[in-house]
Amino acid sequence: MSSVRQVSIRPEGRRRIDSRYLLIREAILDKQQLAGLYKGKRMMACPHALGWLDERPYVLCYRFLGPSLKTERQDLWQWMALQDFAHLAMRSGHWYSAPPETRPPLPGVEIDVEVRP
């Protein structure tokens, strides 16, 4: 059974928390899927971690629908910049994941909330 680790939301510096950030945070806490456009292309994913890198928010997603998906498990994980999302929605459905050792690192990211195995 996985657990969720969360830290209180305290915007620091130039960090700006918008509706996308709050939606993704809620999706992680409730283990819900995300659907929308990423860089203009349709995608669906299960968000696993949300954090900051260089004052910009990023989400670690396990993608199961979208452009250029490969069959290798590690290629399904992706750190995604929140600024590149549009028409984002949370939806119920199967929670997709993979072993944590397959997650790609993002050096320097400060995690706000994440799903832990």
3D structure, described in words:
By secondary structure, the protein is mainly beta. The protein has one domain: SH3 type barrels. It contains one helix and seven strands, in the order E-H-E-E-E-E-E-E. Strands 1, 2, 3, 4, 5, 6 and 7 form a seven-stranded antiparallel beta sheet that branches. A hairpin with a 2-residue loop joins strand 2 and strand 3. The protein starts with a strand and ends with a strand.
What's the topology here?
Blueprint: E1 3-6, H1 19-30, E2 33-38, E3 41-53, E4 56-65, E5 77-81, E6 85-91, E7 110-116
CATH architecture: Roll
Which structural class do you get from the secondary structure elements? mainly beta
Distance between the termini: 7 Å
Percent in helix: 10-25%
Task: Give a summary of the structure in a few sentences.
The termini are close together.
List keywords for this structure.
mainly beta; SH3 type barrels; 1 helix; 7 strands; globular
